[in-house]
Amino acid sequence: MPPGANTTDKDKPFFVDPTGLDFSTKPPTRDPRTPNYPQATELPDGTLPPAGAEGNFIIGPTHAPAPETVAKEGVPKGTVVSFTMSSRDSVIYNPGLIRDDVAGCTNSSIMITTTVPNDKSNMIVTTSHPGTWTRKIDVYVPPNAVPGAELPFIVLGDGGSAAWKDMNTVLDNLIHQRRVPPMVSIQIGNGGQDAQGAQRGREYDTVSETYSQFVQREVLPLVESRAGVRLTGNPEGRATMGLSSSGAAAFIMAWFNPDLYRRVLAYSPTMVNQQWPQNPALRGGAWEFHSPWTGPATPNLTVKDGALVPSEPPGAPLIPSAPVKPIRYWFEMGDQDLFYPNPTIPDGMHDWTLSAELMAKVLADKGYHYQFMFVRNARHVDRPTIAQTLPSALEWLWKGYPIP
Known about the structure:
Blueprint: E1 21-22, E2 29-30, E3 41-42, E4 55-59, E5 79-86, E6 96-99, H1 108-111, E7 114-115, E8 123-124, E9 128-131, E10 134-141, E11 150-151, E12 153-156, H2 167-176, E13 184-188, H3 199-204, H4 210-227, E14 230-231, E15 238-243, H5 245-256, E16 263-267, E17 301-304, E18 307-310, H6 318-321, E19 328-336, H7 352-366, E20 369-379, H8 383-397
Parallel strand pairs: 3-4, 4-20, 11-14, 12-13, 12-15, 15-16, 16-19, 19-20
Antiparallel strand pairs: 1-2, 5-10, 6-9, 7-8, 10-13, 17-18
């Protein structure tokens, strides 16, 4: 536990909830039967929920790869078209964002930095500055695609990650088995580095529609022209997917643009306070999708007739306070997922597993269609878990969409 963390008084700022944490393991292990977690159905080891089942489930501790992760004889294979993008060609993300870390020490800047006085959540990053990014885009085109036909598609953040190594094979098999529609898969590389002060963090952890518009306006037109495909404009046929921060971005894309995306799949989504720079309207970043800001109350001002005056208090968390949106959401979190990777920010809003449980609670309370997997014996973006669950997760995600 970071020094100075408030673990005893819920009424004081930046309370850190240690309930259900076993600190004898590194990272700490969570107990899924914690009283303040939503109730979940624990499945026999090695099994997954029935197709289409909704709600909260506990799986593990063993994770054998699904048979659909292996290429099979006689199954038609899709084709892959790749190209690169540069920030010089972008309007939305030009210039890019570069952070000067110590050579060979990823994230060194944010591991040794400080926070704003009296605000353990507001990180000061002085090593971040404008720069240039390049990224690779890999487009999977399903087998036997009819030229000119409008196709559904899924956008993957953190394109090129080893976590997605089986994605194309899984799609080949599921499409052949008619468990998902023939679709285009678009893996978009991130802009580089990670977390606060980095281009990747700027893209994925910012709670706004900026990244969604970057994909819509700058990436998808290139995908259509370079890969020779026609992407559907029907939001029911457009899905987003990601891991860690890009998993948060996948949900953020659908939240701000349900007119563009309505199906979301995420592994270890970063629904915590990692937005940088801090936005006074959402000081807790993605944490405020499911829970209130944990810090001290501050004056909430607005401009009226050219003068600053007191206004209403900040609103409730985003999901509980908004009308239900047409989003279908599959997500997963491990029992050994991230917990305060940065010791400078013990603010009560950096527990990945707790954030997933709180997401499950507010989604259930609002009546969303979702499936949440609490996974035993699983770490952050756990590769065996992905190999076990990806085929069934994709099938669940596309439930209700017509398969020709």
